[in-house]
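In practice, a research group might receive sequence data for several interacting partners and want a quick structural hypothesis before committing to experiments. The following worked case mirrors that situation: the sequences arrive first, and a predicted assembly follows.
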Amino acid sequence: MSEDSLEESRAETEPTLSDGLDRVVEKERRDFLVGVSAVAAGTLAMLAPIGAAVVSLLDPLRREKLSSEMVLVARTSAIPEDGSPRKFTVTADRTDAWAAYDDSPVGAVYLRRSGDEVRALNVVCPHAGCFVGVAKDNSRFSCPCHLSSFDLDGAVDDPTSPSPRDMDTLDVEVRNGDEVWVRFQNFLPGRAEKTPV
Amino acid sequence: MRGMLDWLDNRTGYRALLQGVLYERIPGGARWRYIWGSTLVFAMVVQLITGVVLWSAYSANAQGAWESVWFIQNQMTGGWLLRGIHHYMAQVTIVLLVLHLMQVLIDGAYRAPREVNFWFGLILLQLVLGLSLTGYLLPWDQKGYWATKVATSIASMTPVVGPGLQQLLVGGSEYGHLTLTRFFVLHAGILPAAVALLIVGHIYLFRRHGVTTPKSAREKPDGYFWPEQVLKDGVASLIVMATVLGLVLWSGGAHLGAPADPAEPYAAARPEWYFLFLFQWLKYFPAGWEVIGAQVIPGLVLALVAAMPIIGGWKYGHRFNVGVATALLAGIVMLTWQARVQDSADPEFVAAQAEAEVLAERSSELAAALSGIPVEGGLAMLRADPLTQGPRIFEANCSQCHRFEGHDGLGGQPADPPSASDLAGFGTRAWLAGLLDPERVATDEYFGGTEHVNGRMSRFVQRGVARFSPEVRSDLAKVIMAVSAEGSLPAQVEQDAVQQTEIEEGRALISGEEINCTRCHTFRDQTEGDVGPVLTGWGSRDWMLGMLHDPTEERFYGEDNDRMPSFGAEKILTEDEMGLVVDWLRGDWVRQDSQGH
Ligand code: FES
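A structural hypothesis for the assembly, expressed as tokens:
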């Protein structure tokens, strides 16, 4: 192209001011739309994997809790007659994620009896979940973690105990004369009311 | 060579990158006080390398975690060293982080424009604490299990979302397989990725702002990162590594407790030492204040520290910050110290710790002796071990009357004096010889506390045996051998095999003229009276199980039974439990040198 013709063509297409403005606005609008579409496309593409991830991670929230059926824990003859507590392992059939276990340990209880009446306490400390122990002389319970102290009925017996409530009592039934059945449950620690986990 | 590097540079621009990384200008030149950041990066790299290799042998499930860590620790070549480095480097990292943070605070290196970088550092500190917390559970031993329960309990106290949060962390309502898979993904995936990202951001911002130079550096000529500062950083990293190696060698490697057991108390549950202050802190909050102590106050303290860059801009703000930080650190040291003092002054804690150690060592020994852990897992293996379970069952069920070497089986002293025989060595020749000793039969070791103290056996020993002639005495020794051999005690079988002739003679003498046990006891097919317990198979596993099952059976004490409960018939103990006590009393357990039973 010669210089002359270049000059000519430029003169022909020389944009007016409003033309330029239009074009800028047009381009901005286009960029905006493209941007929105890009974000939308990206988000849509991620929606399924992130959705699946979140749903899967939240799965434990809708899992069934440990069944709170009555389980056979001991015979009355195994509980000391003098009213001192004895620890018993609670075993039950349970499913842990993919694995089914027969009769495996799920926790422990303290059983005490007076005459024919049997009382059961969950060994887990209502403060923060440690395993409560029995004092050497069988006179009371005490937690080795933050030193909560309970009397033999499981009631907090020292006002400086950090435990917000008494030890958790469990339902007990004596069946067929000497079988001690307990409704084994764990409760949320660190709160005044007894809420099953 | 040169040509190739040129080509590479042309395609990647690596020279400019390297130049930028290495020739960072340091006003006032290289200094020892600038090493902290680099040692932390070094520590992270060490954790990454050791962690990934640990991962290559670790199995994150409730029936594989303890087992695989035991394998790493005891079987894998160099595994103990690998795990030891990972374990102790984690602790050294915390120390380095705190030193780094204190230095930044004291130097005022958090002030504008470095606020964001200070916050990055704070988040890094929390991420590293998170790594420690999640890592503590992974071996799935008693210590990690019970200490982590306290941590997730605290999470559950969060108002409103607490219970849900705990379930998400734990992977359900109870600890199990998913607790491990979830803690593991946090420990080895999410948290390290977050740490890596933040370190990149931290270093980027640090490079952007440059080091905070002390006044003394202003006159000195500038230097470069490479090589002076790198040398200093390298030496510092070497010292860190030497410290860690020293700790590993001094301690013999990272500890592994007994397998986690939801039904077995663990009175020695304590978090790692750098969380002890929080643990101690919780003791001071009475009922109803847990959330305040466990969450609100720590949260506020953290918020205050995060606000320090802003406070630092105010008049006296910097002094305030340094004061607060020092006070916090002092408080943490105080609480930690208090926790330690209280624990070591508590005889029950000390005893619990010693007992935990015994179980830990025994679990490891069992796994080795069985040449691997049975598929049921480490916990089932330990629960089936007479050596450690026997004395517990004895203490709970037998020690009200019996003793074992004068104690309750676990080394304690029951309140009441013994009212039945001491069962240590029951069935051995020595035990039997004691029973037949006129001086000892009526003591607490044997019939002292029982109704049998005035019974026929006691009379026979005190009157009859006391008057035996030397020849009859030597016959009695053979009878003792013969009766004791009925038990086939593991510790005695070899000796019995050697002395077969004496034992044969002894068997004949059991119903002989002089000694004549069969006047009251049944032995094989010979009996006259059948008053005392049967001697056929005396002290054998079956005999003892039978006695435990029901001592009032005719072949044992019949109606002469004193106070011995019928442990089996009345279902006081299960078959397994009786087996464990019997095997323990008979000294029948898996030993390191033998390959199983
Ligand atoms: S867990 Fe029992 S006192 Fe804290």
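Before designing any experiment, note the following. Chain B touches chain A through 55 residues (CB under 8 Å). The mean pLDDT of chain B is 93.
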